[in-house]
């Protein structure tokens, strides 16, 4: 019998020992819930042996560091204000962070992804918006709000007899089957008859030769204090939401009384204008009336050489600032767009081209005695030199300028100058612009300029010049207050804001309009020119270039109505009546706030709704729902808030502006104050 082998046990032992020396299998990164509670940030520590990186996260969460090796040690920070929905109706915010992981080497490497849920509790704000007055008395009662009937009814008839007729009229009515319940003498031969059938009574009485006349005893109604807003009927006027936001529904009603009669000129220093646009016909001072093209033209060094600098119209300075172009030009006319915002015509303008709108858009100045003075400084490439702009500012203000040996002086000096242009200059480099603005102010002109579309905090010139009015842009938010447009520069010289539209190509469409079947973006619609087809058109544009002319137009209306008489008091009025947005008082984002035309011009009330305005100090707006008793409950981020209950007398959807009934609270929410109750907001 063979002896058993002795090598097998040793082999097994070696196998066991070798197996014991192998590293453990790579382990995946484990799931983890990140609960911030009401904290702003939380540190997360997770044991791990491998590599990891943050692959996805929402924009309102920041994670640091983004990647590492070994144990996961990172900090998650939340920006609640960016995550809070418009209705402020989520008590808890939730999101996910996705991490990619890998462990092991070579053939033993494993990779994968893991999702970590993130939760954060919001802070709570409660309150109630109540009627402007709360009084009690046994001898008083509230007048119910009633909707007027479509047409007044009549209570009987009034009949005038040619001579005293006694009861002959009553007998005639009774014979005709009309019941007469009462008779009242009104003096002389005039009598009131309460009858069962007014129409039958009138037919009978008017057939009676003894009756001089018979009329219904019509009902008259007490007339309320609200005027009716003016709604333009032009084809594209419904897309021009910026006017409603600025309170123009009330202003245009005010204009119909004819009090905007003082002549005012607004200079638009820009790319020139298309005088042949039918929606601008008669709205501008033209060639020979003060319009000017300051641009020079330099020909090539040798005959036949291409020009070193082509200003677009092939000639030098002259009195025709037409925004020139040819079929190869792909951009529209910037100056024409800006001019339309101020002064586009209302109603039928007689466009003769096929497919052209006969009515187009409307301008802010409507029936006011306001005209635009076009001054061309921007060439066909969209560029303007500092020297040309400085010359144009002085010229527009009524000062003489000399171009190519010819001296020009406008017969229509501008009381308001609009500059929808600018650049990122140093203060020293901008001195020629600022000195020109100082000269214009000394001559009596108010200079309004676009604050810039730089997405930052760098001052743009000429807006940042002392003496200029730097205008930022706001846009619709879906709440009862607008927000700053993301592109609008914010810096200490910003004085005012006006509607300029949303982020270009964004999906924002809070205005609710449709154009050619598609949702219309929150952009500014105005006159333009199609150079390819050489015909008028209308376009939507956004920018502080669109906000600035709205301030210029309102300044002109203040002067035209006589509310103000010069640059200084006009600016003071604009600032004092602006709707404060963001942090309380003047701030770099909004200046003194968004212009309010109705408040500035003392326009009549056209609405009387009561509502809530809720704004974060950083500029965001929220719109929590009000229940039938006016109560609200909002779930918000930490920070400071203006909580305003008020009326909306100019029908722009913004409650409690400077000229309206309002009650305001300033509230700060945070970990130390996780909830607050503002009580009753009682506008008065």
What would you say this structure looks like, in words?
There is one protein chain. Helix 7 runs parallel beside helix 10 and helix 8 (386-396) runs parallel beside helix 9 (431-442). A hairpin with a 7-residue loop joins strand 21 (468-475) and strand 22. The protein contains twelve helices and 33 strands. The protein is of the alpha/beta class. 45% of the residues are buried. The chain is 17% helix and 29% strand.
- Strand residues, percent: 25-35%
The biggest sheet, with number of strands, parallel, antiparallel or mixed sense and barrel status, is: 8 strands, mixed
Radius of gyration: 36 Å
- The percentage helix is 10-25%
Count the DSSP helices. Answer: 12
Nearest-integer average pLDDT: 89
Structural class: alpha/beta
Q: What's the total count of β strands?
A: 33
Uncertain regions: pLDDT < 50 for 5+ in a row? Answer: 1-20, 133-152
Cα distance, first to last residue?
A: 117 Å
Backbone shape: globular
């Amino acid at each position: 019998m063979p002896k058993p082998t002795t090598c097998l046990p040793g082999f097994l032992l070696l196998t066991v020992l070798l197996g014991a020396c192998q590293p453990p299998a790579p382990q995946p990164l484990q799931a983890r819930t990140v609960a911030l509670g009401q904290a702003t940030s939380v540190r997360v520590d997770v044991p791990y042996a491998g590599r990891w990186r943050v692959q996805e996260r929402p924009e309102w969460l920041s994670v640091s560091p983004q990647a590492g090796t070994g144990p996961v040690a990172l900090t998650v920070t939340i920006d609640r204000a960016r995550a809070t929905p418009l209705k402020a109706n989520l008590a808890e915010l939730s999101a996910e962070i996705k991490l990619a992981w890998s462990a092991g080497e070579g053939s033993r490497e494993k990779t994968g992804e893991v999702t970590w849920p993130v939760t954060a509790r919001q802070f709570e704000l409660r309150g109630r918006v109540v009627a402007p007055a709360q009084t009690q008395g046994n001898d008083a009662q509230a007048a119910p709000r009633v909707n007027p009937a479509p047409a007044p009814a009549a209570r009987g008839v009034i009949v005038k007899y040619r001579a005293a007729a006694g009861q002959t009229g009553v007998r005639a009515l009774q014979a005709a089957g009309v019941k007469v319940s009462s008779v009242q003498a009104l003096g002389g031969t005039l009598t009131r008859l309460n009858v069962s059938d007014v129409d039958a009574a009138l037919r009978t009485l008017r057939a009676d030769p003894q009756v001089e006349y018979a009329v219904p005893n019509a009902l008259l109604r007490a007339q309320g204090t609200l005027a009716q807003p003016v709604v333009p009927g032009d084809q594209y006027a419904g897309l021009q939401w910026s006017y409603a936001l600025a309170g123009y529904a009330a202003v245009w009603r005010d204009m119909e009384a004819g009090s905007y009669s003082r002549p005012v000129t607004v200079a638009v220093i820009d790319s020139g204008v298309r005088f042949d646009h039918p929606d601008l016909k008669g709205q501008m001072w033209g060639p020979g009336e003060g319009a000017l093209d300051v641009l020079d033209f330099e020909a090539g060094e040798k005959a036949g050489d291409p020009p070193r600098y082509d200003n677009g119209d092939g000639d030098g300075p002259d009195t025709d600032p037409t925004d020139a172009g040819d079929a190869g030009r792909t951009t529209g006319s910037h100056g024409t767009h800006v001019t339309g915002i101020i002064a586009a015509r209302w109603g039928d303008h007689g466009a003769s081209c096929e497919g052209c709108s006969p009515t187009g858009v409307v301008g802010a100045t409507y029936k006011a005695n306001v005209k635009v003075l076009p001054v061309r400084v921007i060439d066909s490439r969209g560029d303007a030199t500092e020297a040309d702009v400085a010359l144009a500012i002085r010229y527009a203000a009524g000062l003489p300028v000399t171009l190519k040996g010819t001296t020009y002086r406008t017969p229509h000096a501008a009381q308001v100058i609009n500059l929808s242009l600018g650049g990122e200059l140093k203060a020293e480099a901008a001195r020629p612009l600022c000195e020109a603005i100082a000269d214009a102010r000394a001559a009596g002109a108010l200079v309004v300029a676009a604050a810039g579309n730089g997405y930052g905090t760098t001052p743009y010139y000429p807006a940042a010049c002392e003496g200029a009015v730097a205008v930022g842009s706001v846009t619709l938010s879906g709440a009862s207050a607008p927000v700053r447009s993301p592109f609008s520069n914010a810096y200490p010289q910003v004085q005012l804001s006006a509607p300029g539209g949303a982020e270009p190509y964004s999906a924002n469409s809070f205005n609710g309009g449709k154009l050619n079947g598609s949702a219309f973006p929150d952009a500014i619609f105005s006159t333009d020119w199609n150079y390819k087809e050489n015909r008028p058109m209308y376009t939507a544009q956004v920018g502080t270039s669109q906000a600035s002319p709205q301030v210029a137009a309102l300044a002109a209306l203040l002067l035209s109505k006589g509310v103000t008489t010069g640059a200084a008091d006009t600016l003071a009025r604009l600032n004092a009546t602006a709707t404060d947005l963001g942090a309380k008082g003047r701030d770099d984002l909004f200046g003194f706030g968004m212009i309010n035309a109705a408040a500035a011009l003392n326009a009549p009330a056209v609405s009387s709704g009561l509502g809530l305005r809720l704004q974060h100090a950083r500029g965001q707006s929220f719109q929590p729902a009000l229940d039938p008793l006016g109560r609200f409950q909002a779930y918000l981020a930490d920070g400071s808030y203006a909580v305003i209950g008020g009326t909306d007398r100019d029908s722009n959807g913004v409650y409690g502006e400077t000229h309206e009934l309002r009650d305001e609270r300033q509230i700060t929410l945070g970990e130390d104050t996780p909830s607050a109750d503002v009580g009753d907001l009682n506008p008065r």
